[in-house]
Amino acid sequence: xxxxxxxxxxxxxxxxxxxxxxxxxxxxxxxxxxxxxxxxxxxxxxxxxxxxxxxxxxxxxxxxxxxxxxxxxxxxxxxxxxxxxxxxxxxxxxxxxxxxxxxxxxxxxxxxxxxxxxxxxxxxxxxxxxxxxxxxxxxxxxxxxxxxxxxxxxxxxxxxxxxxxxxxxxxxxxxxxxxxxxxxxxxxxxxxxxxxx
Amino acid sequence: xxxxxxxxxxxxxxxxxxxxxxxxxxxxxxxxxxxxxxxxxxxxxxxxxxxxxxxxxxxxxxxxxxxxxxxxxxxxxxxxxxxxxxxxxxxxxxxxxxxxxxxxxxxxxxxxxxxxxxxxxxxxxxxxxxxxxxxxxxxxxxxxxxxxxxxxxxxxxxxxxxxxxxxxxxxxxxxxxxxxxxxxxxxxxxxxxxxxxxxxxxxxxxxxxxxxxxxxxxxxxxxxxxxxxxxxxxxxxxxxxxxxxxxxxxxxxxxxxxxxxxxxxxxxxxxxxxxxxxxxxxxxxxxxxxxxxxxxxxxxxxxxxxxxxxxxxxxx
Lengths: 197, 316
Description:
The complex is a heterodimer of chains A (197) and B (316). Chain A is an alpha/beta fold and 197 residues long. Chain A has helices at 17-35, 49-65, 86-91, 124-136, 179-182, and strands spanning 4-15, 41-46, 71-74, 112-120, 141-149, 161-165, 172-177, 186-196. The longest helix of chain A is centred in the first third of the chain and has 19 residues, at 17-35. With 316 residues, chain B is α/β, with parallel strands linked by helices. Chain B is built from 13 helices and eleven strands. In chain B, helix 4 links the parallel strand 4 (103-108) and strand 5 (124-130).
């Protein structure tokens, strides 16, 4: 079987750095309004970009409310339901699961958890994240904040706070870029194809 | 990197694969510290623990690792099974495989038994100790403990002291440590050292027949259990003489480096290969080894359960 390499074609810019910053400010306000302040609120980002976005949201919330909220980071690899499909994933060159550190250094019992991710797609990552959170404690509520909702849900999961909804096709991907990971802020719509090598 | 679905030994296993297992084990150590130390990763997978030899630590460690990963696990002892009625190893395992199992963890008194099974069945085979050959997960947990303590294995001097010739723990440690760039010394009475260690393991292996020299040289001492039947087989004049000449004692440790660590795969013959007080001292990492054992075995089961995999850029 010939080897393939992913070929990425940028189809459009959905947000630039200013737009991303403005959207984060709005999301922070929506979270505060919905919770009526910061009482009982904790924030958990899903690795990798969910954690970076959560950090930015916390900076904004601190500037609005003058209080620093607890931040945790969550890796959901061990909660994914696709281990049995990994060999097929290898054949189709899908992304392999890679375990990263989980760090939730506070008690979740009775807290309102804002779960943060960059993109929501099938909903399976969020399902895994909720399972993982339940192993750390019993939150009063889990609310979901995402930068982009690109549709194509496979599970009945709906985010509470959405930066932007984008209609995509299954062949397209959304790339949320953040300065401290990717060197630049912005959101791109890309098409990924498997080029023959 | 291609990871085989079997773990039969550490001979020939590349540094990248050992590093991947040890890195993955660190993540599982975090899982073990959670309020609910369990993840659903291997839900739906069935693992059979086949123990043809007595074992406490290794067997419970594997069983816990399987349960922490939510695998369905069954344990089997040779005594009280159809093996006692004369059934062959292959027939036993083929029957188990017909019950749709995914993985076998095997300890067997015959060197090579796991290799034999791996060629005959579809399930993944993990060696939990075969004869005098290898005990790879013990060596991996030893390496993880050394990494926790020293931060690197590159250039670390590890002295393996005792009955090296008959030890599967020693053999796996030698292969694994050398692959990771550590320096290895073997120390013991001539009757308990391998015949041509440099031919077998490499020219850079140090050999000591004086334990004081080994202790002065080493950053870490891996003290092996003296199998007491060696005295009956004429390889040792007496247990007391062995303890006098090769036992690791607090007095002997005065010549060691200040941050030297003492490891032991257990069970310990207190007062023979290791002074009882030292086994519980500030130098001892023996219980850390036991804790790391569960994390390492979780990592091995996780990485091997997906079949032959290409793992992108390591696990971290």
